[in-house]
Fold this protein.
Amino acid sequence: MNVAAVILAAGKGTRMRSSMPKVLHPIMGKPMASYAVKAARQAVGTTPVLVIGYEADRVRQTLGQDADYVVQDPQLGTGHAVQQAQELLQGKADFVLVTTADMPLLTPETLSRLVATQQEHDGPISMLTVIAEDPRGFGRIVRSPSGQVQAIVEEAQATPEQLKIRELNPSMYCFESAWLWDALTRIPLSPKGEYYLTDLVGIAVADGGSVLAYPVEDPTETIGINTRLHLAEAEALLRKRINRDWMLAGVTMIDPNCTYIEPDVIIGIDTVIWPNTYLQGSTKIGEGCEIGPNAIIRDCQVGDRCKILTADMDRAVLEDGVDVGPFARLRKGAHLGPGVHMGNFGEVKDSYLGPGTKMGHFSYIGNATIGSQVNIGAGTITCNYDGEKKHATEIGSDVFVGSDTMLVAPLKLGKGSRTGAGSVVTKDVPEDTLVVGMPARAIKKLRKRD
């Protein structure tokens, strides 16, 4: 049977005290709403409908094609919000799953179980409930003496006796769709001039139907975000969940509490993550690596058996067996071939270093293509910018670049050539030639290597 998902994301979130819509605040590097969208999509197998309102264009632009969109304007409550999806969904689904965009910890597995519960249920509604000592502002589940769900009472309207109830409503439902679209027209207008989805429980009971409550197994899944305190709480729990999963998958973390791994990161087995390491974006780490401490790696591809110590890396590629740091920086377009060593306080941008090349400390390599088995002495600089344009440097295999060499691009150093310490190289250097001085001049033809 077909199932559609509707995600409520229209509110501003005034308690966040922000000009940004609440559902776009990031958690572990991704917009809060993206977690709800992904969970709903995996649970029902189709693109969810996101009900947006405040800063609707901004939300739509941020989430893109991950959801279909309907706009709630004006915003007249949760019942009115779901009603906006009727034209898009009526007649296309047997059941409608309704979730909210501000619960990023809710898993696809929990939503799938809720859907399965409703598919096996004769009544028009199945809903999640949670047992918790901290009500977090949730409504209370009121049951009959026989244990049947009778109503949801919002905290503000609850009596002192009802406030003692610890079965709470986190606002996750699955409805029989034909009943839902009719029942939405029968929701009474609240004193605040809004239509509340929670009133559907009373309507279902009045219709002679039943409401089945499915208790969530992990109460932390139902933590909603209303303030920045909640945001930090949810991020800490999600980070703990991610780290736990990786450790169970064969990754060692010396101190998981000081390790930050975003959801889209991939890590190979037998890799060791040291404290204060940040793996962000679409980073992929190979097997048997040693990362950190104090490494920040964003959108990078790292091969097997690499060692990265105290480095800042952004959109770089490291092939197998690369050794980097400490205090190294790899910027966009840096590509280190197999077995490359990059020493401390070095920087690489838009450059390729060939297999086995060694780059000494305090060096900058930019817009360069470097062959295999090259030695780049300490303090070497590619002078690639003339004030208007960037220029390329090409260095052949088996070249020895002496310490403190300035390579003024555009420039080519032929295979097997050498530069003396402190040289300023402004002209191309032929193969197997030694140049020294300022500006550098050829002084010797070197014996070619076998």
